[in-house]
Structures are given as structure tokens and as C-alpha cells.
């Protein structure tokens, strides 16, 4: 495996780490990927260990849940479990530690952690070239874990050691990603939602294929994966109670961090007193025209809403709070599924400029052997 590691723009080195360009698929030599990313993966695990501890989740419990996440991955996606184990070996971490990184959403939910929520996503279907954009909101202490990894067939924005998150594949399909919380979420760790997103990127070329894959996974927590192709889009609301489907209305899809599916919404666990998700959803609905702009930066600027505007779509951390209670829009991301491009701005929408975007193009998948 040949891995090219490229530092991204000088002004963003503290915000955005590296782009790893892999010349074969990770499963063919995951140990090399783990070795190349060892420092970043160890730092990411240490940061998550601190986050878990701050929420009262002890080290032994993290170990057990990390092992369970890897076991659930092995049952549903054996090749991805083998990849995670190989990356662990190459990085010098234990397998359960990589399981915990990939299952971090499951571990936080199992520990009954609540919070502001994260991420606002918009898709506007237009003339065979969907206009997509989202914020990726998370704790500012996890900023350094952000990375882009690409190999033949897939390009994904993710966190060090995590198999995938937001991205695009060479079949012309892309995914956005938001967290959800549902009454059916539980501590019997299931397939990590990040593994579901990655397998969709690996295997799906249509919205229906992505839907079938999502429905085949045994889940223990909730998230929404927004799937986009040149002419279709769909929000897949994942939960242990089932997978809800939200199709576009008049060519428009949006999602924040609450359920929209009529059957799943009664189990909503996110409340208005702890999250801005409902206000952000209203903002997205009200700014469809701007969010459908052909110009990427103009589209991102439509997400420039702060608390004083009535919707904290662009989040900034309150530094008076402890680290595990702070939230920030760490990245602004758009997909061009027609051209196979992933556009990433390191930071929130309010700091976007035409020059601040980093663009990554997915390479064609290697021919089947």
C-alpha cells in the first residue's frame, strides 16, 4: 500500500489535519494505514477517552463496549472488522480501542449522554446536479481528529481511526451524516452507525441499495444518513426501532437532529430545552432558495445563522463551559456527486471564503479481480 499524506492549508493546520491518499483499498493492507496514521489515531483515542471519562463512562466499560462494537461489525461487515483490526495492529493500539473509536456514538448513547446535538444538512435537487451542504458540529477538543481519506472508489471526511462518515463514491453516490436520539436507543452495542455509512459508500450506487443496506444492520443507536445521487436523495433515519425514510418535498431535503418520520418521531429523545435542532430545522426550511445556490460559497453562507439570529446553525463554543459541554461547527462540507468531489471548509459557515475550500476528487474504483 502506498499512502500519500498531505498537510492542508497553512491557516487551518490546527483545525484540519491531513488528507490520506491511499492507492489501494484499505482492506488490502490496513496495517500500513494504521502505521501511517498512528499518531493521529492515538491522539483521537486519547481525546475520546477523556470525553467518555468526563461523562462518567469508566475505562473498563469503554473497553467492553469497544469490543462489542467490533464484534457487531464483524457479524454485519466482516471485511470492515478485519480492516479495523489491521489498522489497530498497525497503529499499536488494541483492537477494542479502534472498536471504541468506531463505536463512539454507540458508547455515548449507552452511557445516556445527552447534549446540544450536532449538524445541519440541506440537499436541493436541481437539473441533475444536487446542491448539498452541511455543518459538522462536534466538541472543539476533537478538532484535530478531522481527516479526509481517499482510495480508489471512495473519498470520505472522517475522524482518525474511524472507517468513514461523510463522503462520495465513484458510482456517483454520496452521504451526509447527522446524529439522532431515540427512546429505542440502548446499551446492547450494535453495528456502529459510522460503519453503516462506510459500507454504503463501499457498496451502494443507488438510493434503494443504500436503504436496503441500512435496514440490514442491527443498530443500538440512532443517526440519519442522507443519501444523494444525481437525480435522487433520501434521508435514512436509523434507529433500533427501524429505519425511517424521508424523501424530498419539491426537490428539497433538510435534516437537523430530530426525527421527521411519522412512525419514529413519537420516540424523539432530543428536547428543545437542551438542543437548538428545532430552530435549526426551521431555518433550513425557510432558506431553501439560498441553500440551492449553484455557487458553493453562497450555499454555505445560507448556513450563517448564530444564536442571536434565532438558530445556531453555525455553532461557536462557549469557552466558559467544560470541554465536554462545548460545541462548535468544526467543518462545512458539500458533495458534488456528479463530478465525484468532496468539498471541505475547516470551520463554520461564517468563515467560508471562495479560497478556503479544500476539494478532493474520488478516483475510479479498481476493476474487479
TrEMBL record:
Residue stretches making up the Peptidase C45 hydrolase domain: 132-280
Pfam family for this entry, one: AAT
InterPro entries: C45_proenzyme-like, Peptidase_C45, Peptidase_C45_hydrolase
Name of the protein this chain belongs to: C45 family peptidase
Organism: Amycolatopsis thermalba
Lineage: Bacteria, Bacillati, Actinomycetota, Actinomycetes, Pseudonocardiales
Amino acid at each position: 500500500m502506498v499512502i500519500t499524506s498531505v498537510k492542508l492549508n497553512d491557516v487551518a493546520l490546527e483545525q484540519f489535519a491531513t488528507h490520506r491518499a491511499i492507492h489501494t483499498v484499505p482492506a488490502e493492507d490496513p496495517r500500513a494505514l494504521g502505521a501511517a496514521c498512528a499518531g493521529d489515531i492515538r491522539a483521537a483515542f486519547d481525546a475520546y477517552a477523556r470525553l467518555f471519562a468526563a461523562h462518567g463512562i469508566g475505562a473498563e466499560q469503554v473497553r467492553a463496549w469497544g469490543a462489542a462494537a467490533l464484534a457487531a461489525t464483524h457479524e454485519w461487515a466482516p471485511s470492515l472488522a478485519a480492516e479495523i483490526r489491521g489498522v489497530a495492529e498497525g497503529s499499536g493500539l488494541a483492537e477494542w480501542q479502534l472498536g471504541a473509536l468506531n463505536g463512539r456514538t454507540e458508547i455515548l448513547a449507552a452511557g445516556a449522554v445527552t447534549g446540544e446535538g450536532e449538524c445541519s444538512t440541506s440537499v436541493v435537487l436541481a437539473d441533475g446536479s444536487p446542491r448539498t451542504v452541511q455543518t459538522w458540529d462536534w466538541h472543539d477538543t476533537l478538532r484535530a481528529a478531522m481527516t479526509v481519506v481517499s482510495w480508489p472508489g471512495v473519498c470520505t471526511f472522517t475522524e482518525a481511526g474511524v472507517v468513514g462518515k461523510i463522503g462520495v463514491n465513484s458510482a456517483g453516490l454520496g452521504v451526509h451524516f447527522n446524529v439522532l436520539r431515540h427512546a429505542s436507543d440502548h446499551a446492547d452495542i450494535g453495528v456502529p452507525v459510522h460503519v453503516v455509512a462506510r459500507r454504503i459508500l463501499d457498496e451502494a450506487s443507488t438510493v434503494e441499495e443504500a436503504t436496503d443496506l441500512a435496514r440490514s444492520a442491527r443498530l443500538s443507536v440512532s443517526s440519519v444518513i442522507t443519501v444523494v445521487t444525481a437525480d435522487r436523495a433520501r434521508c435514512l433515519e436509523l434507529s433500533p426501532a427501524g429505519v425511517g425514510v424521508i424523501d424530498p418535498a419539491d426537490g428539497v431535503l433538510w435534516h437537523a437532529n430530530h426525527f421527521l418520520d411519522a412512525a419514529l418521531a413519537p420516540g424523539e429523545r432530543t428536547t428543545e430545552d437542551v438542543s437548538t435542532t428545532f430552530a435549526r430545522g426551521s431555518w433550513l426550511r425557510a432558506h431553501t432558495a439560498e441553500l440551492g445556490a449553484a455557487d458553493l460559497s453562497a450555499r454555505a453562507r445560507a448556513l450563517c445563522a448564530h444564536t442571536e439570529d434565532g438558530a445556531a446553525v453555525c455553532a461557536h463554543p462557549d469557552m466558559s463551559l467544560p470541554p465536554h459541554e462545548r460545541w462548535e461547527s468544526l467543518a462545512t462540507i458539500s458533495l458534488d456527486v456528479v463530478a465525484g468531489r468532496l468539498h471541505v471548509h475547516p470551520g463554520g459557515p461564517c468563515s467560508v471564503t471562495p479560497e478556503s475550500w479544500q476539494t478532493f476528487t474520488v478516483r475510479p474504483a479498481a476493476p474487479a479481480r
